[in-house]
Amino acid sequence: MKHHYKTQGTCSTDIFIEVEGGIIQDVEYWNGCNGNLQGVARLVKGMPVAEVIRRLEGIRCGMRPTSCPDQLCKALHEMGY
Fold first, then answer.
1. pTM of the model
2. Residues 33-54: tens digit of each pLDDT
3. Please, which residues have CB within 8 angstroms of residue 13's CB and are 6 or more apart in sequence?
């Protein structure tokens, strides 16, 4: 299943996610800290969604109440995980 998520409260503006059988197949962020977001996308590729959420949910960016990894978790929840 492919999903497009509009982020809130981060420098990145969009996340495109592909999940099959509960496993992350691909993640692409638009805007934000390019190198860091490429790293996050590569690290979560092939991981079970539940593990991604367990590891990344609640991460904050500085004084912001969220972060790009946390927004990925919000997108996964929006997808029904």
1. 0.96
2. 999 999 999 999 999 999 999 9
3. 6, 7, 30, 31, 32
